[in-house]
Amino acid sequence: MKANSNLHILHLISSQGLGVDTVSAGEIQRAIAAGIAAEKSSFPG
Question: Is 3 left (phi over 0), alpha (psi -120 to 50) or beta?
Answer without folding.
Answer: alpha
